[in-house]
TrEMBL record:
Example GO molecular function: lyase activity
This protein's name: Acyl dehydratase
Pfam families: MC_hydratase
Organism expressing this protein natively: Streptosporangium becharense
CDD domains given in the database record: FkbR2
Length: 172
């Protein structure tokens, strides 16, 4: 029997400049998602939660809160870019290029722009990617550059965290 230790994502050595990751999940945004996020973050712009008000705006309907869309695109990219990161170092050049509406499905992809070993942490490296979000029609809805510090494959910090069962190993 082989036990596959808990783990997911890429380590510093796995990144190659120029590689593109089409992140595997998509996320359809519901009215509840948008309303809850808007109220939770105290965003009082009525274009995000008042259909009657939004009908009078140039687009004529509720626009999804851009903070929610940024959070979803970021989340979609974690599995490939920062699952094994110990910290985000920065976001730059954030662009919101197309409105997002309730019912849109959001996807994300990232390209590796740069990588270098960390000078202060020998167990990690620094990776910079350009990430963009796409809607179901292939329209780019947003983009940014993000720099993360990612564990190297031999770093001890992200290993051995799964608890050992008190009653022994799982058997068939």
């Amino acid at each position: 029997m082989t036990v596959h230790a808990a783990g997911l994502g890429r380590h510093y050595e796995d990144f190659v400049v120029g590689d593109v990751y089409q992140h595997p999940l998509g996320r359809t945004i519901s009215e509840a998602d948008n309303t809850w996020f808007t109220l939770l973050t105290m965003n009082t712009n009525q274009n995000h939660f008042n259909a009657h008000f939004a009908e009078r705006a140039p687009v004529g309907k509720i626009i999804v809160n851009s903070g929610l869309t940024v959070a979803i695109v970021l989340g979609l990219s974690v599995i490939d870019v920062s699952q094994n990161a110990l910290m985000n170092l920065g976001w730059d050049e954030i662009r919101l290029t197309h409105p997002v509406f309730v019912g849109d499905t959001v996807y994300a992809e990232s390209v590796v722009l740069e990588k270098r070993e960390s000078k202060s942490r020998p167990y990690a490296g620094i990776v910079t990617c350009r990430t963009r979000g796409l809607n179901q029609d292939g329209d780019e809805i947003m983009s940014w550059r993000r720099t993360v510090m990612v564990y190297r494959r031999d770093a001890p910090h992200d290993k051995g965290y799964f608890p050992r069962a008190k009653d022994g190993p799982l058997t068939p």
